[in-house]
Amino acid sequence: MNESTSVLFDQPGPRGRRRIRMFNAVASLLLVALAVFVILRLHNPPDGENQLSWELWKPALDREAWTDFYLPGLWMTVKAAVVAVVGSIVFGIVFGIGRLVPNMLVRAVSAVIVEFFRAVPELLLMVFFWRWFAFAGLSSPSYWAVVGGLVLYNGSVIAELVRSGVGNLPHGQREAALALGLSPMQSLMTVEVPQALIAMLPATITQLVVVLKDTALGSIIMYTDLLQESRRLGAMYFNILQTLVVAGIIYFVLDWLLSRLAERMPALMKGRTYGNTVTEPTAPIAIMDATNANQIADAQEGERPYGGADRQFPDHYHGSNATTDHWQHAHYSHGHDRNHPVSHPQHPFPKLPIDRRETGKGSDGSPDDSAGAV
Amino acid sequence: MEAFLDLFREYDIPGAFWVNIQLTFWGAVISLLLGVILVMMRICPVSSLRGFATAYVEFFKNMPLTIIMVFMVLGMFGQLKLSFSDDFDINFFWLAVTGLALYTASFVCESLRSGINTVPMGQAEACRALGLSFWQSASQVILPQAFRGSVAPMGNTLIALIKNSTVAAAASVTTETSSVMSDMIEFHASQILQIFFIFALGYVILIIPIGLLTTYLSNRLAVRR
Asked: Looking at the 3D structure of chain A, how many domains does it have?
């Protein structure tokens, strides 16, 4: 994880080492001063009581606190998170494939659904479901509202991961499948989507961290999750700060473990797919999936999957990057073949059955541009 | 139709969105500043700063925003008596902005770092071969390319910030959209769908242009290699 940042500075010489030591000492002093300031503030807040006293920490940490508040709260959190994860993976795969199938109506409907739920804040969805389920007389409306909100938003994000996973596959995969006589649908289901699913696994696990974090939104709609329970406990003993710290640590440990897993995944998945296993620091929420994952993958000298040829990632996304129809218009950044018809967008393409759209935009610029400005 | 228009007369819906836009604006400004400082600390040779920045980012990246918001009001203000103003509304607004900015800063830092990852190692190696110092190679070669590569994740972070501004409800900001929507539904249960779509469409209208701009700019600015 650090190799790309550490190349910025070489093994320093004696003078460099001295300078770094000096800066290090100053910086450490500043950080210690910051810590002391925080502790002093905790110890003696203006006209408040000492927040470090055991009287306040004891009720936040003793047995009853765990058995009556944190553990039941954690169970509710996990219950919502697990159901939401399963739901959003199903939702994501269904609508992700829905956005790629040859049928235009299915594509359009899936696109509207996915784009809508990616744009609406989860909290609005949860509040809406909560009120709606409560009026409808459903039992435990806040639980289903939390699950519903999480599934619709995270499912849409996973749908986009499936779609951009397919779009980021080298187009040779589809070309080869079609050349072997598979139909576009067969190529999609048997060649492209399976590889995309493996490629998107790391990003999906990152999304699980988001699901777990966002269950805490449930406390706003009165769902008795870990956050809500710790607030209740804190309200009893007037030590909300302390109980929130304990709850925060529990959330942090769970999320941190999942994050570590997500960080290890790309290396494991790399050899098993021609897709791009790089994860983004942020979920793909912008319409048309702006991403720099391909540029990162390009910058890293990765292994070749299956011991095959160098990977080629498209260096330009054509609007919503990943309708499979666009495969003829991909620009490759390296391994570029100047003689291939793809490099010459004016070239009249042979009309293929899957290329339903008229030449349309055709290209994004001159042949030089598509040559990747070598 | 008349009932629908009454909703607009009774509640200040554009005003609610305006609160969210203000939260987003201040959150974006402060988190951008913090994020740039953090990423500089994260790539610098001084190990204590690097450690601090890594710890900060890991902490806020793995912490639910809701708990940060609740902590801001009940912990920071309630028990540590940290307040921005005597006026409760203004105080809660700025506590919410602080929570949002602290949280988002870690994602800004990660976005910029992912931008740095788009610069091939060869660039840094070439800098070293030319004898450039850390600051020279960072400011002249690496960061200018990294900023161009980080447009896409930064756009996604901004969109996430807009959506997250609704979580200010957890910090007792009652004039923002999710609280207003909750109130409206409570008193106009029969119009629940209309009310939801008013707010949902508001966000779609806010977010889609930013998404389009992000995609356009990141295509436009990407360094072709």
From this structure: 1
Looking at the domain assignment, is residue A1 inside a domain? no
Of B114, B166, B214, the CB nearest to A124: B166
Domain positions in chain B are 2-221
Q: Which of A8, A215, A227 to mutate to test the interface with B (most CBs of B within 10 A)?
A: A8
Cβ-contact A128, A93 below 8 angstroms: no
Q: Do B113 and A281 touch (CB under 8 A)?
A: yes
- Report residue B200 as tokens: 């949902």
**A26 token code pair:** 């100053």
Q: What is the pLDDT of residue A364?
A: 43
In a domain, A127, yes or no: yes
ipTM: 0.92
Which stretches of A238-342 are DSSP H helices? 240-269, 293-299
Measured at the CA of A106, the angle between CA A104 and CA A111, to 5 degrees, comes to 95
Check residues A311 and B40 and name the one with the higher pLDDT: B40
- For domain B2-221, the question of CATH label 1.10.730.10 is answered with no
**A238 within some domain:** yes
Contact B138/A47, CB-based, under 8 Å? no
- The domain of A101 spans 60-272
CA of B2, closest CA in chain A: separation in Å? 22
For residue A253, what is the domain's CATH number? 1.10.3720.10
Residue A83 identity: V
pLDDT in tens, A110-136: 999 999 999 999 999 999 999 999 999
Segment 112-131 of chain B within 8 Å of chain A by CB: 113-121, 124-125, 128
